[in-house]
Design goal:
Blueprint lengths: L9 H35 L4 H23 L3 H28 L1
Length: 103
């Protein structure tokens, strides 16, 4: 007769691990699509340029997390972090310059 193991079954743990892997990858896909959408919108209306920079920065941070966690790429991770910081600085610059233009 087979004994039942106490605790969480391996099947539930494997499903949680799959969920843990798919959420950041899904977030990367969604933010990449948002980058394409805001790139087109910001070409037509320059008011959305800071939003585009923010979305690109978040996308690069998610890419850096995925590369570090799942793909074990260290140098590309550093490049993504530096680029996301540059995009964050550009977004702040455009937001501040837009506020000063209003006054």
């Amino acid at each position: 007769m087979e004994k039942k193991k106490k605790g969480i079954s391996r099947n539930i743990l494997s499903e949680f691990k799959d969920f843990e892997i798919t959420v950041p990858l899904l977030a990367q896909i969604l933010f990449t699509e948002a980058v394409f959408i805001f790139a087109i919108v910001s070409l037509l209306e320059t008011m959305f340029l800071p939003v585009f920079y923010i979305v690109v920065g978040i996308t690069l941070l998610i890419m850096a997390y995925n590369n570090y966690t799942y793909y074990k790429k260290k140098y590309f991770n550093t490049a993504c972090m530096v680029l996301s910081a540059i995009y964050a600085i550009l977004a702040v610059y455009f937001i501040v310059s837009t506020i000063f233009k209003l006054f």
